Amino acid sequence: MKSTDQSKIKTNEILDSMFHPKSVAVVGALSQPDKWYIRQYYIAPLLELGYKGKVYAVDTKGKDIPGVQNYRSVKEIPGPIDLVIGCVPAKRTPELLAECRQAGVKAVQLFSAGFSETGEAEGKETQQQLKALVADGGPRIIGPNCMGLYCPESGISFCTDYPKEPGPVGMICQSGGITGCTVRMIVDRGLRFSKVVSF
To answer: What is the C-alpha to C-alpha distance for residues 184 and 161, in angstroms, rounded to an integer?
Structure first.
C-alpha cells in the first residue's frame, strides 16, 4: 500500500472518531452551579439526542453528574476514548492535552478560550504549547474557542434543540453564534444537516 493511501486511511479513521465516536469525555468544572452552560452544551445533547456511545464526565472535585459517571482525570477512565471535549481554563489545556496524549485519545475539541485569538502573549504561548503536544502522533484538535461538532447520525451536538434527523447539508463555520443561527434558519426551511463543524 502506498504511503498516500495509508495517510488517507488514517485521516478517515480520525474523522470517524470525531463524528462517530464510540466514547466521549467532557472535561471541566461540571458540578459547579455557575458552569451550567457546560452541561447544557455538551452533556445534555449527548443524553437527549440519542448518542449510543459511552459518555464520561471529568470533574476534579469528583462529584457525580446525573446520568453520567464521573472521573477525576482522563487517565482514570477505563477503556479507549475517541473524543474529549475540553471545558477547562486555557492555562490548564496543556495539562489536559498531555493527559489525552498519554491516554491515547484520538481527538480533542476545545471549548476553552484565551489563546492567540486574544492577541496577548500568554495566550499565544499556550497555543504554541498545544501545537507541540499534538505534533508527531498526538490527538487532533478542533478549536480552540469553539462550539464543536453536530452530527445527528451519531447523536453528537452542542444544542439540545437541533434535529435528530440527518440530511445532505454540511457546514464549516468559524463563529459559534453564526453556526447556531444558520443551523436553525436552514432547519426552519425544511433542510437537515449531515455534519456541522464550529471550529
So the answer is: 9
Mean pLDDT across the chain: 91
Does pLDDT of 164 surpass 60? yes
94 and 126 Cβ atoms separated by less than 8 Å: yes
Residue 186 grid cell: 436552514
Residue 28 Ramachandran class (φ > 0 left, ψ -120 to 50 alpha, else beta): left
Phi, psi of 24 (to 5 degrees): -130, 135
Residue 136 DSSP label: T
Q: Which three cell numbers stand for residue 88?
A: 477547562
- The arithmetic mean of pLDDT across residues 108-118, rounded, is 95
pTM for this one? Answer: 0.92
Q: What is the pLDDT of residue 67?
A: 81
